[in-house]
Structure prediction request, 266 residues.
Amino acid sequence: MILRALLGHHWQRHRVPLVLMAVAGGLFEWAFTRIAPSSSASPLVEEVLRFAPPALQRLLGEDIMASVTPTGVLGIGYVHPFLLVLMSVWVVRMSAGALAGEIGIGTMDLIASRPVTRTSQVGAAAIGIMGGISLIAAAAWAGTAIGVAGRPLEGVEASEYLAVAGGCWLLFAAFGSVGLAISATRRDAGSAIAWTTAIIALSLVLDYVGRAWDKMTPFRFLSLFQYYGPPRILRDGLSGVDVAVLASVAGVGFLAAFVVFQRRDL
Prediction:
């Protein structure tokens, strides 16, 4: 009952932005099915890309030639900044607001005055984070599925993108756990938002710089974005290494949030 009440509290606070983000993600991926080139146009785009400088090709991403096919273009939608921002906004908002934010606005005093364990508070926050990214990722995949059903593209099956959506979910589960661990140490939402946003942005920059600059390539493994690549997932499926790394970060982050929040002063 206590966990349900906490989840209801989070739902009341965050439901409108979450629903809007899910709808936006679904419409965005649906739009990609409208702009994806037909199979006949792909060779022309490939020919143009062959003349791009090598550094630009690396910056555009792995398997860039595969990305100009209808299948690849739809995959780009799952690593496009728009979807990444939607997912980032949710994990930052929910992780910062659920613990540090409650302390900052004073509602944590009311919660703490009731028979609510700190474990339940962190657990409700973790469920909220995971539930939100699940809804956005599911909406994104639904947009692809609806779009492909309305405009059949040669060689494209909506089921192929379930693994891509799953990889995106894993990536932001990891970032969400990091954000929750940070929130467990802060006394206001502002500082938690700043730290979590900085970590996500730094991870993204490190990944992009590592692609374009050979001297930084050995450090790409430090970026969580290194373990999420839609073209690679579409070609080979979810890598066991990628799943293990992202799941491990998520597990460690959530465990850290539980431990730290249990021991801190409110």
Remarks:
- The first helix runs from residue 2 to 35.
- Residues 2-263 form one domain.
- Confidence is low (pLDDT under 50) at residues 44-49.
